[in-house]
Specification:
Elements lengths: L1 H34 L5 H5 L3 H20 L6 H38 L3 H32 L2 H12 L1 H11 L1 H16 L7 E4 L2 E8 L3 E6 L4 E5 L2 H4 L3 E2 L7 E9 L5 H13 L10 E7 L4 E9 L2 H22 L20
Antiparallel strand pairs: 1-2, 1-5, 2-3, 3-4, 6-8, 7-8
Helix pairs in contact: 1-3, 3-4, 4-5, 5-8, 10-11
């Protein structure tokens, strides 16, 4: 009977004590969150309940198990399993706490700074920092798990002697991966591209949707995703339409007859822009930029708050201006002469 009651008492006592402490901690976090709404850290820390309970339960179970001296014949194996589980749960808890701290910092910064460019920059940096912390914690946790095995400790001692050679070989083999890793850190520090930026890469226009330590995802206007190595953005030129601000200037080109009413077109352009919500009112203009033997080139200048609005505005202005010319000034549209050439005066 004792062989049954003692294990139940050890496991049950550890479980009950874990539930009580976790409940008290959750109550304290809820009260702190209610008192300090401006600080989201307390609410975010409540997401750490499960890994915290697991760490506490495994710690209590390991201590009470050794004190009660249960299953002494299997003590080494049980201790090994509990140690591995404790290391894994502790790493999980540390990642959750770090994530809560990073998200809290970003939320407070975003609420205090209305500039979207600075917010996107900080968001990109904290995301990469969070990934670095997660990768570091996971690597250390796996290494700690392996070192709990006596055979691995012996192998590790011999591996230290050849660490230099292995490091050189691994560096050569993983040259591309390491290059992308350092490029990701360079993007985070140098602020060359951020999450939410509008970019043009390889002739494709899209928005940066995700940045990791090794790759970057661009969402195009037609909802496709282009995955590119981050080293591309540190080694090749690309267009960043959001750098320094999201405002953007666009142009519309029209090819018209030489008799086109330029002055009336300027007045019509202002009427069109006034009725377009995409125009931000910063600048506009209409000038003749070139002429050929058949047509003139008219350039219309437009401004909008972002790349999406400038695209819609350009299409709207182009469509409505051509419709206005067709209805009121059809002579301004370009034509190709198909009649017979007039004879030269005075004969051949």
């Amino acid at each position: 009977m004792e062989n049954v009651l003692r294990p139940l008492a050890v496991i049950g006592g550890s479980l009950v004590l874990t539930v009580i402490v976790a409940w008290l901690l959750d109550v304290l976090l809820r009260r702190a969150d209610a008192r300090h709404r401006e600080t989201p850290l307390w609410g975010l820390l409540r997401r750490c309940r499960i890994p915290f309970q697991l760490v506490m339960f495994l710690s209590l179970l390991g201590w009470s198990y050794r004190q009660a001296k249960l299953w002494e014949d299997h003590e080494k194996g049980i201790t090994q399993v509990l140690t591995l589980a404790l290391i894994g749960s502790a790493a999980w808890l540390l990642v959750r706490v770090a994530t809560a701290a990073v998200e809290s910092t970003y939320s407070r910064f975003a609420a205090a700074h209305p500039d979207p460019a600075r917010v996107r920059r900080v968001r990109t940096q904290v995301t990469l920092v969070q990934r670095v912390v997660t990768a570091t914690v996971a690597t250390v946790a796996v290494a700690a798990m392996l070192l709990t095995f006596p055979a691995m400790r012996a192998i590790g001692t011999s591996m230290l002697a050849s660490a230099g050679i292995l490091g050189i070989v691994a560096g050569i083999a993983a040259q591309s991966t390491l290059g992308n890793l350092f490029a990701g850190l360079q993007i985070a520090v140098g602020d060359t591209v951020r999450i939410g930026d509008t970019v043009v890469v390889e002739g494709e226009w899209g928005t940066v949707e995700e940045i990791t330590l090794t790759f970057l995802v661009v969402r195009t206007w037609d909802e496709r995703r282009i995955t590119m190595p981050v080293s591309y953005f540190t080694g090749k030129p690309f267009e960043n339409w959001s750098r320094g601000g999201s405002e953007i200037t666009g142009t519309v080109f029209l090819y018209l007859d030489h008799r086109a009413p330029i002055a009336l077109m300027r007045e019509q352009l202002q009427d069109i822009l006034t009725s377009c919500p995409e125009w931000d009112g910063r600048a506009s203009g209409l000038v003749v930029t070139d002429t050929t033997e058949h047509t003139i080139q008219v350039r219309i200048l437009l401004t909008a708050k972002d790349a999406s609005d400038i695209w819609t505005l350009r299409c709207t202005v182009r469509e409505r201006m051509i419709a206005w010319l067709c209805e009121h000034h059809p002579y301004a549209l370009p034509r190709i002469a198909t009649g017979s050439a007039a004879e030269r005066p005075g004969g051949s």
